[in-house]
Amino acid sequence: MALASNESTGWRPIVGVLVGTAGLSTCITLVFLGMRAVMDIGGACADGGPYVSANPCPAGIGLVMTIAFPAGFGFGWLTGWAGNRVGGYAGLPFLAWPALFISLGWNFLEYGLVSPPPGEGIVWGWLIPGVLFVLMGGVPLLLVLRWRSEFRSDGGARFAQRAQMLRAAARARASAAREDSGDSGANLVGELERLAALRARGDLSEIEFEAAKAALIRDAGAGS
Fold this sequence. Notes:
By secondary structure, this protein is mainly α. Helix content is 75%, strand content 0%. The model is unreliable at 1-8 (pLDDT under 50).
């Protein structure tokens, strides 16, 4: 029996998660290092002009910043798409938000408080944005960690209940199909293809799909 042939199964979604996560991490690291390079020369750079003081940017920094942001969105999409196929990892790219803002906030705090320019004390123009950036990244991260903790406390029971409902629905559909026609094999293929379509749309995770598929096959074997 053939399921949807265009779906990513097996090792491919796992590779997608690994590639997407590695690419997204690399983009955040490039932005972090690029910002430090600019802050090393005073926090701003320009090519000069009639009304702009020339302060050349570090070599390649413009290209790095131009590529890092759109590439980061692309790798984030890949991570979410593949994570949904694996099951339970679709939200992984959202960790990029706290990673980006906390790392950039660290730069501001370090250069404004720990390593200010020579001859200057605390640089409030860098210290205040640093605090704001850390809050922008840290508060969502704390909320996610709290949600994860609450989910782990009762999420298992909710998942078991949902899996039980899926199995019951699958048994009911299989029983109705057998009563409508004697061709249980054809009906089983149709139900499996329908479940595969639900997984492809993201309505079922990989784990839920496997649970419902096992219930269908088991019930078909019991009824034959």
